[in-house]
Design a protein that fits this description.
single chain, alpha/beta, Rossmann fold, binds nicotinamide-adenine-dinucleotide
């Protein structure tokens, strides 16, 4: 259904972003994937994307904490997409936990740069062509932490609340243009980002991997089940469909009930 469209998905070498890139490729969409990866992972990803027939997938490396890299990524993505970038998925991100008193400024700055400034710049660079075309989809992968807070996550919660605000502004500025902008707010998804937090719980409480998973889920997510990258990929694909033409400025929770409490 997305044949002829072209998507830029940031942070698509792992976890949720990879799930989204796969779902879009599965719908016939060309993809630009980006994020950190070593040669071994890149070979694996190349093989993976080759298995989707009739689509073009290209890897463009970029560190989203660098403005120069973000600008080059946008320029190269435009080059890859024969008819311009139709779909932006701002997904790349990372976590750092620490009480605010000891939260390093450099980490705060890097998290803001990758999770808030980079999406801003990518939208700024690629929106004009979407407007001209009269069609576009901007999907920001936020978090339950874009809606509610947790301790020791000041930069993450601030960046995610920020991206929800940015989503609403872009939705208003593009209303009626054929471009929509929405945010998706997942709860816990079992990816390397969360595996790190599970390992921390194992250490802090001297418990097993399974018990740490249960503790993590029980604390926040009433369903007690992980959201999967595939499920988020399908929601993103839905947002790219015609059924979602009038959905814009929405903050969509996929969090097993986390923010219903
Ligand atoms: P992940 O660690 O599996 O993947 C993160 C991706 O972002 C990787 O491709 C990585 O290379 C890329 N990335 C990180 N820093 C980057 C930088 N400076 N420049 C370029 N690329 C960079 O994590 P994930 O869980 O898949 O997270 C993806 C997004 O989903 C993040 O924005 C995260 O905040 C959000 N999220 C995750 C969860 C969860 O439970 N895992 C929940 C809610 C929201």
């Amino acid at each position: 259904a997305l044949t002829g469209r072209c998507a830029l998905v940031t942070g698509s070498t792992s976890g949720i972003g990879l799930g989204i890139a796969r779902a879009l490729a599965n719908s016939g969409c060309d993809v630009v994937y980006t994020g950190f990866a070593d040669d071994k992972l890149l070979t694996k990803l190349q093989d993976d994307f080759r298995s989707y027939t009739g689509i073009k997938a290209t890897y463009i490396p970029a560190d989203l904490t660098s403005t120069a890299d973000v600008e080059r990524l946008c320029a190269e993505a435009r080059g890859h997409c024969t008819d311009g970038v139709d779909i932006i998925v701002n997904n790349a991100g990372f976590q750092h936990t620490s009480p605010i008193e000891s939260f390093p400024l450099a980490t705060w700055d890097a998290m803001m740069a990758a999770m808030l400034t980079a999406p801003f710049l990518i939208i700024q660079h690629l929106l004009p062509a979407m407007r001209t075309k009269g069609w576009g989809r901007i999907i920001n992968i936020s978090s339950a932490h874009g809606v509610v807070a947790s301790v020791e996550k000041c930069a993450y919660v601030s960046a995610k609340h920020g991206i929800n605000g940015l989503t609403k502004v872009v939705a208003l500025e593009t209303a009626g243009s054929g471009v929509t902008c929405n945010a998706v707010c997942p709860g816990w998804v079992l990816t390397p980002l969360v595996e790190k937090q599970i390992r921390q719980l194992m250490k802090d409480h001297s418990i097993t991997w399974e018990d740490a998973q249960t503790m993590l889920l029980s604390n926040k997510q009433p369903s007690k089940g992980f959201v999967t990258p595939e499920q988020i990929g399908n929601v993103v694909t839905f947002l790219c469909s015609q059924a979602a033409n009038q959905m814009t400025g929405s903050i969509l929770s996929i969090d097993g009930g986390w923010t219903a409490q």
